[in-house]
Specification:
Layout (H helix, E strand, L loop, with lengths): L9 H39 L7 H30 L1
């Protein structure tokens, strides 16, 4: 198996390690992007499901009530995504 001696080359191993780290970083970024998109989509979908009625003040109160539930969940998703990048 002399043809596979390059696996023992320290420079080759270093390059393979760098490539693996770059791939892992790319996967982490993709996961974070997906988590942020999910948080935004979840927030928008929740607000779109509200049947706001009443005066503008009452409507604002209804939207704030939904945001009080949805926003902490969205923040948690984004926070976990950011921690995944560290």
């Amino acid at each position: 198996m002399e043809g596979f001696g390059f696996f023992n080359d320290p420079d080759f191993q270093r390059r393979m390690q760098e490539m693996a780290e770059q791939l892992q970083s790319s996967q982490s970024i993709a996961w974070a992007d997906n988590a942020i998109k999910l948080a935004v989509d979840m927030t928008v979908a929740s607000i779109n499901r509200i049947n706001v009625q009443g005066t503008p003040e009452q409507q604002a109160h209804q939207i704030r009530a939904v945001m009080a539930v949805v926003f902490p969940e969205a923040v948690t998703l984004v926070r976990e995504a950011r921690q995944g990048l560290s």
